[in-house]
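Consider what follows.

. . .
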Amino acid sequence: MIALLVMTDGRDDVLAETLASFAANVTGPISERWIHDDTGDRHHSAHLAELYPDFTVVTSPGRSGFGGAIRNAWSRLRLGSGARFVFHLEDDFTWNRPADLGELADLLDLYPHLAQIAYRRQAWNAEEIAAGGIVEQHPEDYTDCAAGELQWLEHRRFFTTNPSLYRFDLLERGWPAGAHSEGRFSLDLFADPARRCAFIGPRDSPPWVHHIGAKRKGKGY
């Protein structure tokens, strides 16, 4: 039902911490596990395949950078995956508390206007830190929503590559080439005035995940 897609580019120590935290904290109907290795080194990819035999390890010739890696990973999943959803996980996030991906899948099934449901991280850049958090930076842009015991915040600010679940058919859009690809993907997505993204949890909930990647090794962000 859910394809776990882990994006990495050679930070094996950080990747190991991320996958250990994921295994200890995250549950849900994961039917496939993929790692996209952007080192461009087939020996490194083979090493990852030995370390993580439950994963299918894919790569592309040479280093393709942030946007190129996502384009290639999505292309490989379109050809080889049978999942309904993708859980996108960069290699530098750990969990602060348990998470159930099945809850996110249920919300996406119930609310087709939602393109993505993400787990909130801690404030990272200077603007977020000054405001006290991601949501706190632009509080008026987030709408409080609830269904039963589940709560979430809807918005039209961005599509994020932070830990999040989205439908498999989103891969058919493709990922843009060139710089600022995340922002340009968001603009294209929100050209539909009904389309929204979300953070799981209420407005006052603490960060669900912790960004541990102090330094990026990739290129083309």
User: Anything to note?
Assistant: The chain has one domain: 2-211. The longest helix spans residues 65-80. The two ends are 30 Å apart (CA to CA). The CA atoms of residues 124 and 155 lie 19 Å apart.
